[in-house]
Amino acid sequence: MVNSIEVNEQAKISTLTCIDLSNPDVQSSVSLLKQACLDSGFFHIINHGIDDEFMDEVFAQSKKLFDLPMKEKMKLLRNEKHRGYTPVLDEHLDPVNQIHGDYKEGYYIGVEVPDDDPDANKPFYGSNMWPSSDILPGWRETMEKYHQEALDVARAVARLIALSLDLDDDFFDRPEILGKTIATLRLLHYEGRTSEPAKGIFGAGAHSDFGLITLLATDSIFGLQICKSKDAEPQIWEYVPPLKGAFIVNLGDMLERWSNGIFRSTLHRVLGHGQERYSIAYFVEPSHDCIVECLPTCQSTENPPKFPPIKCESYMLQRYKDTHADRNSYK
Is the pLDDT at 7 greater than 50, yes or no? Predict the structure, then answer.
């Protein structure tokens, strides 16, 4: 059994760089972040401004949702805007190696866009699905507050990333990037099933994230693994230890494309070890219309762009289609 105290003797543990967002020496933070992005695409951030008591409340409210009877959760089933509840096996992140989908359930909460707003017609904007306040009082207010505070943290991290790529610190704050971001909060609950990689059973299959960055908060249970050398055979997987009060940050595919492959969107997965596990992911993607193409600071005659330009909306729609069950299968 793997937990915050005891780890299987054969498990490899990854040591992540820890970046203090309150450090007044910005250049020192930029240097640390850049090296982490070159090495693994994963790092910890501390002193990010979201206090521990509030994080504990977010986790408590998340558990209350997943503790609801299945009948109540299915009333909130993920809609066409990818908002709401996703049952166990709904997501299938690694179809090559998984015999079933992921042994986790989740809940998507996006940026709230009123139905009468013209942007609500876009695939990843719209109104959220909220559990009744009679069933879960205060739940919506907690999640909306967390959504906004996590976005503030993500913007702070994005400024450091911009500087590490020799860009102006507000590069990612532009309207076409994070001005109308597709930022998605996803609550996650892994059931107590033990993963068996050799048999294709995973809490979450191996994958890279889709967008700019992801902020991940976890409980004290081990489970997250990263593979720093995705082309190595055999792949070497290392556990990322939980760190109380810290976010695990990882880079997404779009940042890898922006940086011409210099920064890495690293493969990661989750293994279950017979214990329930909760985590809270905050995925930060650009606006629908953002064109992601190689940055001028990341290309040269000797190092031309490796990826063609892509529109964020098109890329996101394809990735969701590839990794999620057809909603019609639940009818």
Answer: no
Look at strands 12-13 and 238-239 and give their pairing: parallel
pLDDT, one tens digit per residue, over 210-228 is: 999 999 999 999 999 999 8
310 lies in a domain? Answer: yes
Peptide bond into 234 cis (omega under 30): yes
In-domain check, residue 2 = no
Residue closest to 246 by CA, chosen among 218, 222, 284: 218
Give me the CATH number covering residue 264. Answer: 2.60.120.330
Q: Is residue 8 part of a domain?
A: no
With pLDDT > 70 as the criterion, what percentage of the chain qualifies?
A: 95
Contact indicator for 216, 250 with CB cutoff of 8 Å = yes
* Nearest of 267, 272, 111, 76 to residue 189 by alpha carbon: 272
- Average pLDDT taken over every residue of the chain: 93
């779009």: which residue's tokens? 254
Task: Report how far residue 62's alpha carbon sits from residue 236's, in angstroms, rounded to the nearest whole number.
Answer: 32
The pLDDT of residue 163 is above 70: yes
* Any domain includes 104: yes
Domains: count for the chain? 1
193-205 confidence digits (pLDDT tens): 999 999 999 999 9
Tell me the residue type at 296: P
Which of 255, 250, 251, 111 has the alpha carbon at shortest distance from 183?
111
Range of the domain at 149: 16-325
Residue from 195, 182, 20, 179 nearest 93 by CA: 195
Which of 252-280 are b and which e, b meaning 16 or more Cβ less than 10 Å from the residue's Cβ? Answer: bbbbbbbbbebbbbbbbbbbbbebebbbb
Q: SS3 letters for 265-301? A: CCEEEECCCCCCEEEEEEEEECCCCCEECCCHHHCCC
